[in-house]
Structure formats: structure tokens, C-alpha cells
Amino acid sequence: MPKLPAHDGEQWDGFTIDELRYMRAYTAARLEIARERLVHNASNVSEAFSGPMGGGQNIFTRLLGALSYVDVAVLTFKIGKSVFRIFKSLRGR
Predict the structure, then answer these.
(1) Enclosing domain of residue 83
(2) What's 4's DSSP letter?
């Protein structure tokens, strides 16, 4: 994606229609790629639970193996945020 012009206060007139179209198409492509990765990861998870190597590995290990590092980081962040809120509300009582 090309660098967009920096806007300094009142001199900035906004984006052109071509820039807006480009940003919209770029974002749609990124979302489609993320959606495809999610579907692929979900199929990997379902294969991990129903695969022929069922008993040899820990389910948690197989689940983490099917997810990318970014997915694991996002899940960890969300779980940590929830736990932090719970402890914060308990401490506030």
C-alpha cells in the first residue's frame, strides 16, 4: 500500500475518491485472506480432533499446533484481559 499524504491541520483536503477506493479494496482483500486463514485453521483443528493419531498427543498441544502464533497471542490477550477485569472487580468490592 503506498504511503498516504500526511495531513497537517487545515491544509489537508481529505482523500481522493481513488485513494478511498484503493483503501477499501485493500482492506477487503486483507479481510478475505484473514477469513481464509481462519477457515483453514478451523479445518486443521477439526482434523486434529478426529484424526487417526487420536490418543498419542495431548488435545491442547494439537489445538495450539493448528493455530498460528498470532491467533494464540490474541486468545492469550483476550483471556488475560478477562481475568484481569475479574480480579479488578473483586478487589474493588
Answers:
(1) 14-92
(2) P
